[in-house]
Design a protein that fits this description.
By secondary structure, this protein is mainly α. It has 3 helices and no strands.
């Protein structure tokens, strides 16, 4: 079993066993996760497309927008 699966299980157990959460903690976790999702969306969508296009010369003309 991987370390990530164990960590996920521990966090899930904490979420199910805790009755109340500090609102500041929830806000900070939500901000962190939203930043992670923005970075993940960039690295999984536009970056590979730009890498695949690199040798085709489409970006050299400047008409890519």
């Amino acid at each position: 079993m991987s370390v990530v699966a164990l960590e996920d299980g521990l966090w899930a157990a904490l979420a199910f066993t805790t009755k109340t959460f500090n609102q500041e903690l929830i806000d900070s976790m939500l901000g962190f996760v939203s930043g992670v999702m923005i970075v993940a969306s960039f690295w999984s969508l536009p970056s590979p497309a730009l890498d695949m296009e690199e040798g085709k010369g489409l970006l050299d003309k400047g008409d890519y927008f």
